[in-house]
Amino acid sequence: MSDCPLCCPVGEQILWETPQLRVIAVHDEANAPAFCRVIWREHIAEMSDLPPADRATLMDAVLRVETAMRQVLRPTKINLASLGNVVPHLHWHIIARFADDACFPAPVWAQAVRAHGTLPPDNWAQQVAALLNHSET
């Protein structure tokens, strides 16, 4: 779809991709300095639109990203979300949360209550990408 920003991406930092999906680092969420998205390539809106095997493929990717982010970042918690209210294209948010992040324990989209405490290393996305690409073999 030509008007879908996930179908026609610009300037993404792709960490890992397969024929079915891609994983990107998100750097424009002010309250979430360590944030990835798993994006299904086909333009569909809901998990239930996928056949069971594709659902399993997508969830396996979400869990691979979570595992890699936990290993690299050692967060207090990982948040997983599949919203799609603004962009109705199937994608999952994988968000590293820290007890001293701007919004914790509220969602990262809430009003910030403090400045970020723990910040990820500058190369966190490259470290996650290395783990994702290594786990393929």
From TrEMBL:
Top-rank lineage group of the source organism: Bacteria
Taxonomic placement: Bacteria, Pseudomonadati, Pseudomonadota, Betaproteobacteria, Neisseriales
Domain HIT, residue spans: 38-104
Molecular-function annotations in GO: catalytic activity
Protein name in the entry: HIT domain-containing protein
Chain location of the short sequence motif Histidine triad motif per the record: 89-93
Xref: Pfam families: HIT (PF01230)
InterPro entries documented for this protein: HIT-like (IPR011146), HIT-like_sf (IPR036265), HIT_Hint (IPR026026)
